[in-house]
Design a protein that fits this description.
Oligomer: single chain
Radius of gyration: 24 Å
Largest sheet: 6 strands, mixed
Strand order of the largest sheet: 6-7-8-3-9-10
Number of helices: 11
């Protein structure tokens, strides 16, 4: 295991930020920590890195007990925190060179790694720029380059796409996939469920300091009763028909507004075919039909009673 967390507890006075957390992260994973702001994601990361003292529990990284002075272990970790941490007095190149130099002392090797990091995040044309001249998205890319230039085996990214434009976000996500393909194990925290679904091989959903669900996204979605949401353009649907649709097997709710029929269902293999059979049998004219599978937000909502973004 790359990371092993056993019975971790972290308190701030009467507030329990991490509540008896147990977690294992395997080599080669992109492991997602998903949860709303304040759920304990960043606190867990800071405990893993020994940046915070915790009240109870054990943390191992690469099979060794983690501590503030575990420098040999920390050399194999790259950290990209939510708040951009670069030097405004240094250029893009100089920033990456400085952070890489904390781990790599050989000048030729360091120069090679710095250039690789610049190429990787697409900042070649900005290498002489100072951070204040960069857009938010470019600044995030610089932050990532500083954290990964020394080619760490474990990369921890804490909300790396906050407040960036969609194009920069896509570039960052694609870059993370490449880092993983090159051999890095990645821990990725976010409250953006779309990013977690797109990136992660396994996911832990956190709330109030606890891991409330753990597994691949398909496993998480299979834990709940919610099925697909079916939406279609339908015309001249009567109240009587809506009552009959609501009574069909697996149907949870029915809404009909401005010729848009929305049906939420429980899990089932033939929900769409059952609905279309009813529509055609009753000569209801309809247009586009599409379905949405359950999301991680649906998992969170069913488990906690609260939407992930609330």
């Amino acid at each position: 295991m790359v990371v092993e967390i056993s019975n971790l507890v972290k308190r701030y006075g009467d507030l329990i930020a991490i509540d008896h957390m147990n977690l294992e992260i395997k080599e080669g994973e992109i492991f997602g920590l998903l949860g709303p702001n304040g759920s304990g994601k960043s606190t867990a990361i800071n405990c893993i890195l020994s940046l915070l003292k915790f009240d109870k529990g054990d943390i191992k990284v690469f099979g060794k007990e983690m501590s503030p002075t575990a420098y040999d272990t920390k050399r194999n970790i790259g950290i990209v925190m939510q708040n951009v941490a670069v030097f405004n007095e240094l250029t893009v190149y100089e920033n990456i060179d400085y952070f890489c130099g904390l781990y790599i002392k050989d000048k030729a090797k360091k120069r090679e790694l710095v250039q690789e990091a610049i190429d990787f995040v697409g900042l070649n044309e900005f290498r002489k720029f100072y951070p204040k001249k960069l857009s938010g998205g470019l600044l995030r890319r610089l932050n990532i380059a500083c954290g990964i230039a020394h080619k760490p085996k474990l990369i921890i990214l804490d909300e790396p796409t906050v407040a960036v434009d969609p194009q920069s976000r896509n570039n960052i996500l694609e870059g993370i996939k490449k880092l993983n393909q090159q051999g890095a194990t990645v821990i990725y925290t976010s409250h953006y469920m779309e990013e977690i679904e797109q990136l992660c091989t396994r996911i832990a959903i956190m709330d109030k300091g606890k891991v409330i669900a753990l597994g691949a996204k398909e496993e998480l979605k299979s834990m709940i009763s919610a099925g697909e949401k079916i939406v279609l353009e339908a015309f001249n649907v009567t109240e009587e028909m809506l009552v009959e649709i609501k009574s069909l097997p697996n149907v949870v709710s029915v809404d009909y507004i401005d010729d848009r029929l929305t049906i939420k269902t429980k899990s089932g293999k033939s929900n769409i075919s059952m609905l279309l059979s009813y529509i055609e049998k009753n000569d209801i004219s309809y247009g586009k039909v599409y379905s949405e599978l359950p999301t991680l937000n649906d998992v969170f909502l069913e488990i906690t009673g609260t939407a992930l973004r609330d």
